[in-house]
Amino acid sequence: PPVPISAHRPLAGIRVLDLTRVLAGPYCSMILGDMGADVIKVERPGGGDETRQWGPPFAAEDSVYFLSVNRNKRSVCLDFGQPAGADLVRRLSRRCDVLLENFVPGKLAKRGLDFASLSAQNPGLIYCSISGFGQSGPWRRRAGYDVAAAAIGGFLGITGEPDGPPVRAGVAVTDLSTGLYALSAILAALYRRRTAESLGEVGRGCWIDANLLDTQVATMSHVAASFLHTGQEPSRWGTGHANLAPYQAFDTSDRRQLILGAGNDRQFGVLCRRLGAPHLATDPRFLSNRLRVANRTSLIPLIQALVRARPLADWLATLEGSDLPYGPVNTVAEALASPPVADPASGLLVTCEHPAAGRVTAPGPAVRFDGRRGEVTRPPPRLGEHTDEVLGELLDCGCEELLELRRGKVIA
């Protein structure tokens, strides 16, 4: 029966065949699942998605890493390196709206699972390829890893303390950003297909090329644009900002850190008053952001001396109600316990019952539709948990066929 579409499940009725593993692809497909799509995760027999073993910590047989990006999916365990397994993928793709894959470019074409082959059987298929360096060009066969793309794309070069070495971000920002770019492209392709159908035209799919390096360069944004305009190599600024001053972390008297900044001249005046130093707002060296940036080596020590005189809690109370950019530099525990996050009514932390691990909690959907976040209707799947269910439901595989496939080690 058709799945009812609701405001917080706008993709109900959309089916996604997910051949991805690790992070960028699974993160994208998880959000599609959060929005109501039926996501079928295809995994290899004998281990599945390699992140199942990326621990500790583990919850039962799977890593928490895997559990964090694979909710709202069904797991089918099959070997499409075998002809019979590749045929199952082809048959499944005919029943799907979207296919996601993140294999080295050209690998799936050898099995007849590339866009040209599958779209010939399903013209409406939206086929999204996620790779390290794109589907064409001299680096297309390089494996894609977040830290490599971040390094090659310049992100590591601008991250870290001014007098220190490059620093990797604490989460895989390039992977996650690529997943989000892929998500937005898939949604646009679904909209284009639906629009064509509403006009009585053939709703055709397309081939989406999302890759880590393109994402990294695109998200360098104003930093890359500044270099292209001036030719000056950007610096590392730690928690600071190349174009604003003050805009960074400051030490408090209790050895905590407070992010504090001013985004414009009016805010700088507010900040000076809250700091108890209104004279700084009229100091000729600091009258405009341009001057404050030019004279940051004089300004920052003055503000640091003021902030270091009082503990963090005092400053948070003093800054309450202002429109300034400010906040504590929290640990992960403090961030998850903060009122906007920990409040059960927010729904940002979601808990589901996993068949082996019990109660599993993780950050949930980041956006709301009409005040509601997407629902967690399925916990992260166990390896091959839904193989028989999916093949029976979508391909009408009966017991004899499933038994034969298992004997041939095509499915597990």
TrEMBL record:
GO terms for molecular function: succinate-hydroxymethylglutarate CoA-transferase activity. Pfam families: CoA_transf_3. Residues 361-385 are annotated as: Disordered. InterPro entries: CoA-transferase_III_domain (IPR050483), CoA-Trfase_fam_III (IPR003673), CoA-Trfase_III_dom3_sf (IPR044855), CoA-Trfase_III_dom_1_sf (IPR023606). Signal peptide: none annotated. Keywords: Transferase. It comes from the Eukaryota. GO terms for cellular component: mitochondrion. Belongs to the CoA-transferase III family. This is CoA transferase.
